[in-house]
Please model this.
Amino acid sequence: MPSMRWIVGVDPGTVSPGVAVLEENVESRTGLRLVEHELIKVEGQRSFRLYWIHDRLTKLFQRLEAQQPGRRMDVAVEYMFVGSNAKTSMIMGEARGVILAAAGAVPKARIYDYPPSSMKLEIAGHGHAEKPQVAAAVSLLLGLDELLPFDVADAAGLAILHSRKV
Model:
């Protein structure tokens, strides 16, 4: 039986983070396919949104682990860049924190960080690609008939990048 792994890409956010789960044959580096995806839409106070994101991801990781106990799971998370708005950077840091906490609770999960520009360069051909360009490239690379929501496409792009790097 081939050695398979889950690659979970997560595009952080506090309102609508994107999540994409890809499956890949580790030995041959073939068979990269989108298994599931979700745009986690949440409203309310920031503390509730952070709780909800953590809860949704924890349940996803538990479900994947239950489907294939012991299967390798790599989690690729967008690395935050610090912009000129410190408040926004802090809020995004909180979102990354709950994502990392949920992933960190998974036995044997490996967690990787990638800057958005690296993903855009690898997936769309240049580091300043816009979201529609990334979504189109991800759909093409995964053989999808339709475009994924932009934040989900970013998450899938992170997972594809990870597949090519590790």
Strands lie at 4-11, 18-25, 30-39, 72-78, 110-114. The radius of gyration is 15 Å. The chain has five helices and five strands.
